[in-house]
Amino acid sequence: MTRSRNDFDQNRLDQFVQAGLLTRAEAAHATALKAGSREPLDIVLTRAGLVSESRIAALYAAEAGLEHAENLDDVSGLDSSLDLSDFNPDFLVTERVMPLGLRGDACVIGLVDPTNQGAVRGVSFVSGRQPAPVVLTQSLFSALCADWLNPGSDPDDDETDGELDISVDAERLRDLASAGPV
Known about the structure:
It is a single chain. Helices cover about 50% and strands about 15% of the residues. It is globular and about 45 Å long. The chain is built from eight helices and six strands; from the N terminus they run H-H-H-H-E-H-E-E-H-E-H-E-E-H. It starts with a helix and ends with a helix.
């Protein structure tokens, strides 16, 4: 029997209550917020100010038996970087997964939700290496995406002759909008 996303989210909320991160009333409030949103549960919880990203990442990591990272310095033992040009950016952003580098023969994969094994398998397939997953906070994942999608960008470079140049951002937003459901 396959569990629905709502059942899965309710189970997660119960785990937050058992871990003492939420009260039953806060979990009920989160359920109501989640019902009107397409956002993942962790984003709903942090936007409502109910649970911090670091606590969510720590709980998810402990649940999955993985390490977690709030910044790149928390990721231990990367031997080398990985060429990200082989990876589909839309897949990585949608699945909230990012190949971080190589550790021995394994590809270290940062992801926000460690239950997303399809994303882990996808990155592992493209890299041709065994996965070594690490749970990331949403903020770290977003920062990694921003760095990857805008490599070498300097905030001062957005201005051209005193005017703000938003053409790159506008183009990227058009690309993202065309890839998403309407």
